[in-house]
Amino acid sequence: MDTDIIAVDVGNNRIKIGWFKNKILKDVFITPTTNIKSLSFPSRWKSVTPIYVGISSVVPSVNPVIKSKILNFFGQINIIVIKPGNCNIPLKIKNKNTVGVDRVLNCVAALKLFAGNIVIVDIGTAVTIDIVSKKGEFVGGLIIPGPSLWSNALTHTAMINKCKITEAHTKIPGKNTDEAISAGMRYGIPGAINNILEHVFKKYPSAKLVLTGGESMKFYRYIRFKKYVRQHLTLEGINYVISENSI
User: Fold this and answer.
1) Residue 221 belongs to domain with CATH number
2) Which residue, 48, 81, 114, sits at the end of a domain?
3) What gap in Å lies between CA 116 and CA 132, rounded to an integer?
């Protein structure tokens, strides 16, 4: 019998919603988190009859609206908001209840896909670099600002109002403010990631590198280490947790 699951990843800037059939990701759509009140599911999903909906959220205030939208579209259905402690992975960190559930779900999915000994780089609003040990434990990670935080921090200063950030403007030196910020992001973000990874791989030299996140493909070619790409790793983690614990 076919099994449909809907996975919802609520991030600071974007909401990703994925449809899994028999544990295979069939379709994804993405909407800005700020547009949550106008969220509508695609008409092509009208024939989807999910058994469960799993939600990973780092913006709890959005959860009631998401639940309402799900019930309106799919009818009465089991909705599970996933917490870090629900993920069936040992958390060898401090303050386990405060870690971002998306980070833990990334580790769950990477562990299923690549076994242990993994470094996961998720490039989104923030850049998180997380580590799964050979024993399959989430042992912690590092966090730096992502592209939107980087540009927002600069454009909110007194001398910089609105800037066009484009990949085309990456020459050194930048000839105006837009070009200078664009070039700074182009070299600064992957430069920081590469430098961090260099130190991480000194401690975990045989670890596999997995790249994910909404901004990952913008920087993929600048990450100089061998890597695997799973753009929707958090959605995959939600599917694994729901499939293995609720069905």
Assistant:
1) 3.30.420.40
2) 81
3) 6
- Contact indicator for 139, 93 with CB cutoff of 8 Å: yes
Residue 140 parent element (H or E): strand 138-145
Q: Residue 91 sits in which domain range?
A: 85-147+177-233
Which residue is listed with tokens 């996933």? 82
CA-wise closest residue to 139 among 103, 166, 109, 163: 103
Whether 76 and 29 map to the same domain: the answer is: yes
Count the Cβ atoms, other than its own, within 10 Å of residue 126. 19
How many Cα atoms within 13 Å fall on the side-chain side of residue 143? 8
Query: Residues 216, 128, 184, 188: is their CA dihedral positive or negative?
Result: negative
Active site residue 27: no
Domain boundary among 81, 112, 136: 81
Q: Assess whether 119 and 202 both reside in one domain.
A: yes
Q: pLDDT tens digits for 1-30?
A: 568 999 999 998 899 999 999 889 999 999
Alpha helices in the chain (DSSP H): 63-74, 101-114, 147-155, 177-203, 216-219, 233-246
Instruction: Let me know: does 227 contact 125? Beta carbons within 8 Å.
Output: no
Cα–Cα distance for residue pair 37/160, rounded to 1 Å: 31
Considering 2, 9, 27, 102, which one is annotated as catalytic? 102
Tens-digit pLDDT profile for residues 166-223:
665 577 888 888 888 888 888 999 999 999 999 999 999 999 999 999 899 999 999 9
